[in-house]
Each structure stands twice: as C-alpha cells, then as structure tokens.
Amino acid sequence: MHLQYFVQFRLFFNHFRFLAYLFIFLCYDKTMKNLKENNIKKTIWHIKRICNNIENNKEDEYRKIELFHLKSSIEILTRILNNENPYPNLDREEVF
C-alpha cells in the first residue's frame, strides 16, 4: 500500500519537475533574446556616438582614442552576434 503511494508521488514529482524545467527554459530563452537585443541596441548606440565624436573633432590624438573605442565596440558587437559574452574577462552578460 505504501509502495503504491510512493510510486504515485514519484510520478507526480517527476511531472512537476519536468514542467518546472520547461517553464524555466522558456522564460530563460525569452530573457536571453531580450538581453541580446538590448545589448545589440546599446552597442550600436555606442558606435554611433563614437562615430559622431570622430567626425566632430579635429584633434588627431582625440581621434586615435575614439578609433580605439570604435574598434572595441565593434569587437563587442561581434561577440554578441556570436552568442558570446560581450566582455571576455568578465562574468557580466550585459553591455555597460
């Protein structure tokens, strides 16, 4: 008799656990898509801002600095599009 209740409980528990994992997966997938989209938007905004700074400034030293920032932002965008972390040495998945 107790064995029957135990088996029913295990079946119920396994079904519940499966549904919980499915819910977490679906929510995680949606969250990751939103995160990737937001990261792409932020990175493109940074690239536009840097390009404006390069265009509006006449000093070569300042332009070199902004070109370095532009190169870094393009590398970050490439990593985001390849489903990698934006910053390789940090655990952060969101663009600053």
- What is the averaged pLDDT score? 77
Largest sheet: none
Number of helices: 2
- Percent strand equals under 5%
- Rounded to an integer, what's the Rg over CA atoms? 24 Å
**Which spans have pLDDT < 50 for at least 5 consecutive residues?**
none
Order of helices and strands: HH
**Share of residues in helices:** over 70%
Which structural class fits the helix and strand makeup? mainly alpha
Apparent shape: rod-shaped
Query: End-to-end distance, in Å?
Result: 59 Å
Total strand segments:
0
Topology (SSEs and partners):
Blueprint: H1 2-56, H2 60-81
Helix pairs in contact: 1-2
Outline of the structure:
The chain is an all-alpha fold. The protein has two helices and no strands. The chain is rod-shaped.
Descriptive key words:
80% helix; mainly alpha; 96 residues; 2 helices
Descriptive account of the structure:
The chain has two helices and no strands. 6% of the residues are buried. Helix content is 80%, strand content 0%. With 96 residues, it is mainly alpha-helical.
